[in-house]
Amino acid sequence: MIRTLIFGAIAGYVGKKLYDEGKLDAFRDDLVKRFNELKQPAPADAAPAAPPAATPVH
């Protein structure tokens, strides 16, 4: 458990340094761009067709 705490502290320290130096901006911008591409609706002709309605068997 102590190793996990030490690793977390080191990762947090290094991450903060990278953030303060602005080295994570390109990574963030790439993530935002990909997220926005996924949010856009797909074209209507590329949408999968709905399955036919099932009729109950009596």
From TrEMBL:
Q: What is this protein called?
A: Uncharacterized protein
List the source organism: Sphingobium fontiphilum
